[in-house]
Automatic annotation (TrEMBL):
K(+) binds at residues 247, 249, 283, 286, 288. This is Ribokinase. Its EC number is 2.7.1.15. Activated by a monovalent cation that binds near, but not in, the active site. The most likely occupant of the site in vivo is potassium. Ion binding induces a conformational change that may alter substrate affinity. It catalyses: D-ribose + ATP = D-ribose 5-phosphate + ADP + H(+); D-tagatofuranose 6-phosphate + ATP = D-tagatofuranose 1,6-bisphosphate + ADP + H(+). CDD domains: ribokinase. The active site is at residue 253. It comes from Metabacillus rhizolycopersici.
Length: 319
């Protein structure tokens, strides 16, 4: 059985590249358009699979051409698809994404079949899952399904990673079941009211999650500035790995997936977060939320070239 279980959204991404975003009512010519498999849940599952882990994917897709392509992609990545819900009367979720010259993106998501996943589907899947160590969840599917997944995971002694995205969908109940959360700057501000602009304000946000929302562990992702790991009252700043960004779509998903893989290997939160920084850096240097995800061979090659280490040792430039 799989080491990691992911419960979450599954989409087809339609990605357009352009120098800048069009203004309201404006028409611009872009450079290119690609159709790529995406969705936060699917991205995280694929990230784990690319890193060599066995993965269960629990989610919902439509009985359409996008759904067939996504299911094929899962199988090619050796992701367990027996827990996928196939929906007749809803189309597969779709995200229309624009990426500008700075590699930043805007995204319009139509949930489609993702909204069909319910508590019964999740409970039925978990009744057949026995050996997973880690649960990865996000908030792009119905809250009831997310909460049920977290409750089932708790019963089975799994470590729960919640990516609180989008922040508008996160409730205090979901936060209480999480062993660690991985918000970005926007999600941190939405949940805490704190505008994270420095290490000091990131620590304040970590304390807020702990003292007021009951989340003892958090990784506050500060984009290219790095990340702040807050663990049981202690904080550690982890610098970002400098790379030329091409596409930031899926960067947070690659981070969450890498974190799950390292924790499944028995690494500490700090060691896991340092590994995740490397994985996320390699992801943003390539196009595609899933096609840009690195493999372990690519990570090892990159680390050898740049004198980086991970797992058990602090990720750092070796002297």
């Amino acid at each position: 059985m799989a080491e990691i279980t992911v419960v979450g959204s599954i989409n087809m991404d339609i990605v357009a590249l352009t120098n800048r975003y069009p203004g309201h009512g404006e028409t611009l010519f872009g450079h290119s358009v690609k159709t790529l498999c995406g969705g936060k849940g699917a991205n995280q599952a694929t990230a784990c699979a690319r890193l060599g882990k066995s993965v269960n994917m629990i989610g919902s897709i439509g009985l359409d051409s996008y759904g067939k392509e996504i299911e094929k992609n899962f199988k090619e990545n050796q992701i367990e698809t027996s827990f996928l819900k196939l929906v007749e009367d809803e189309s597969t979720g779709c995200a229309i994404i624009t990426v500008d010259a700075t590699a930043e993106n805007t995204m319009l998501v139509v949930k489609g079949a993702n909204d069909s996943l319910n508590e019964h589907d999740v409970q039925k899947a978990f009744s057949q899952i026995e050996t997973s160590k880690i649960l990865l969840v996000q908030m792009e599917i119905p809250e009831a399904a997310v909460i049920r997944a977290m409750m089932e995971a708790k019963r089975k002694g799994m470590f729960i990673i919640l990516d609180p995205a989008p922040a508008e969908g996160v409730t205090k109940q979901a936060l209480l079941y999480a062993d660690i959360i991985t918000p970005n700057l926007q999600e941190t501000k939405q949940l805490t009211g704190i505008d994270v602009t420095s290490i000091k304000t990131a620590i304040e946000a970590g304390k807020y999650f702990d003292q007021y929302l009951g989340v003892k562990n958090s990784v506050i992702k500060m984009a290219d500035k790095g990340a702040l790991l807050y663990e049981n009252g202690k904080s550690i700043f982890i610098e970002a790995i400098p790379v030329k960004a091409v596409d930031t779509v899926g960067a947070g998903d690659s981070y969450a997936g890498a974190l799950a893989c390292a924790l499944a290997d028995g690494e500490s939160l700090e060691s896991a977060a340092r590994f995740a920084a490397i994985v996320a850096a390699l992801k943003v240097s390539k196009l595609g939320a899933q096609s840009g995800l690195p493999t372990m061979d690519q990570i090892n090659e990159y680390c050898a070239e740049h004198n980086l280490t991970y797992y058990g040792l602090q990720t750092r430039q070796l002297r």
